[in-house]
Structures are given as C-alpha cells and as structure tokens.
Amino acid sequence: MRRLWNEFKSFAMSGNMLDLALGFIIGAAFAKIIESLAGNVLMQLVAVIFGQPDFRSLTIDFNGGAIKYGAFLTDLVNFILLAALLFGVVKFIIFMGVGRGRNFVTKQCPYCQEQVAPAAYICRFCHQQLVDELPPLSEAEARLAEQNRRKSLPIPIRRKTTEPSQPS
Predict the structure, then answer these.
(1) CA angle 120, 107, 121 (to 5 degrees)
(2) Which residues pair with 108 in a beta bridge?
(3) pTM of the predicted model, to two decimals?
C-alpha cells in the first residue's frame, strides 16, 4: 500500500501534472475574461445596433411547435464574437512578443521516445546523435546566433514625432 501511495504522489506531483493543472486554471480564468468581454461588451454593441441584446424571442410556429431560430442566431453571434475576440487577443499576445522563439513543433527521439526540437542534432534526454553527421562547431554556433537574433527582434513601437514650430 505504501508503494502504491508513493507512486501516486510521484504521479500527482510530477512536473507535467502541475504544468497541466496550472495551464487548466489559467485557461479557465482566461476563458471567463474573454466570455465576459464578448457577452458584456460586444453583445451589448449588438443590442445597440439591432435593438435587442439577444434574439431568443424569435421563433417560427410550425405545426403546433415552435422553431427557436433566434436562440440559434444568438449562440451563433456569441460564437463568432468569442472566436474573433480570442483570435485578436492571441494575435496581440504574439505581437507583444510572448512566446516568441518558442518552438511549437517537436519530433520524437527514436532512442528514448522523448519530444525534442525538430532542428536538434543531439537528444537532450538520452544524448544520442539525431543526424547522420554533426556539422562543424562554427556552423552550429552560427545557427544558434541566428536563432537568438530572431528571438530578440525588437517590438515595433510607434512614437509620435513632433516637429518644432517655425516662426512665421
């Protein structure tokens, strides 16, 4: 029983599990913010434009039943607004440089089965060579310098320029 408990503790407290839990919590909070912005701000703009905050009251009576197409329209507008807002927020975050240089694509090491960067020459876990022939050190250093240069590209900032007024 003690061994089982220790295995469970190792599983529950592993780095991957904690990363997943933190990501889930932050994602849930982020979703609430996006939902609130879409529902409390953008849907209110829809209400100003169309005269009502939602279309749930729109129905078609057909053969004794009501087809609630207004509820579908409201959900569709909510979805489109949420998707557009989320897209905009993600584009803004990327523009601000968060995640810049982060490698979202990985490949699996054939020796230890761990995920490594697609351009890796050597697996960082098992230290096995992943290419047929290693490049010279100078070439590898040049490639690293280029990657670091790309990661540290400056964020474009627009500054107001004021020209001194000329006396008339």
Answers:
(1) 15
(2) 115
(3) 0.46
Tokens at 31, concatenated: 């979703």
Give the Cα separation of 23 and 17 in Å (integer).
10
Left if phi > 0, otherwise alpha if psi is -120 to 50, otherwise beta: which for 101?
A: left
CA-CA distances (angstroms) from residue 1 to 6, 8, 9, 94, 109?
9, 11, 12, 48, 35
Task: Name the residue among 75, 77, 92 with its Cα closest to residue 30.
Answer: 92
For the chain, residues with pLDDT lower than 50 are 168
d(CA 98, CA 90): 10
Contact between residue 121 and residue 135 where contact means Cβ atoms under 8 Å apart: yes
Instruction: Report residue 144 CA to chain centroid gap.
Output: 26
Domain boundaries, the chain: 2-95, 103-133
Quote the pLDDT of residue 126: 93
**Is the separation of the CB atoms in 98 and 90 below 8 Å?**
no
